[in-house]
Amino acid sequence: MRSAASQRKGKLREVAARKADKRTEKKRELAESAILTLAQIGYANTSLRDIATQCGVSVGVIHYYFEDKVDLISYCVQQYKAEFVAKMETIIESGSSRESIVEGFTDGLVRAIEEDSDSHRLWYDIRAQALFDESFRPTVSEIERSLIGIVRRLLDRLDAKGIDPVDAYTALDGRLRFCLQQYVEQQKGAIPDFRSAVLRLFRSLGLPAA
User: Fold this and answer.
1) Is the model's pTM score more than 0.85?
2) Which value, in Å, is the radius of gyration of the alpha carbons in the chain?
3) Which of 25, 151, 178, 196 could form a disulfide with 169 if both were Cys (CB 3.0 to 4.6 A apart)?
């Protein structure tokens, strides 16, 4: 049988774990609310008070979970990008042929624009900010490494050994950012043009395109 002291320690660990889980969940809830405000009007135009109002809490509550606006925004983008990377990984791994992998990957990029354009806008916003504000650079570097990693895995699955992952990533990223701009401007044909451009890009790299 466990001793009384051991049982107390076990209960304390359980309480600490529950508190940590609740804290993590609360941070996620705040981030989900904050990203709506941040993505709509941008980093520079958003204050912590704006974010607190959107979240329905006080500025003090925001500060309890995040050091400052940079910490909050970095957390928001990291959470979203982690989900995006996981989705794209699933698409890459579930493809049964080179053609189906390319088609699924292209569809995944299209859905990212159609369903999560605000989150992507925030990503491009802080990536630009990182050119001037070094506090964003660790987060941006970490996210870019994960995105390049996804493209590297894509090329591995397509057996495209002669293609540099960074070259492929920057080509795809540039096209996605351009489409996002057109989509936000509600330009007609932005999504079909993007899909066609991505498939042309795959073909130019010598890869199968559905």
Assistant:
1) no
2) 21
3) 151
